Amino acid sequence: MFFTVILKHLATTDYYHYNKNCGGGSMARPKKPDGQKAIKQSVSFDPDQMERIKEYCLREERSVSWCVRKAMDQWLEDKGV
């Protein structure tokens, strides 16, 4: 199961402006078949967690969704799921 983070306030962050101004998201991606599309899920973080996540995403030039999916993959693997 994949989790995608939906954060309404992300549009006001440095990450959003970096990604928008540096060409992130401007290229069209090929459409995935229905069975392979990510499922949207809202997730809440403590303010400190969100700040740390945003710092990491900026440093790695990755989206919050990408980072959360990768972390979830690792957690599930560690749990043997």
List keywords for this structure.
disordered N terminus
Question: What does this molecule look like?
Answer:
- The protein has helices spanning 14-21, 47-60, 64-79.
- The chain is mainly alpha-helical.
- Residues 1-11 have low confidence and may be disordered.
- The protein contains three helices and no strands.
- The protein is globular, with a radius of gyration of 14 Å.
Topology:
Elements: H1 14-21, H2 47-60, H3 64-79
Tell me the major beta sheet: none
Using the alpha-carbon principal axes, give the shape: globular
**Total DSSP helices:** 3
If you average the pLDDT, what whole number results? 78
The SSE order reads: HHH
**DSSP strand count:** 0
How is this structure best summarized?
By secondary structure, the chain is mostly helical. The chain has helices spanning 14-21, 47-60, 64-79.
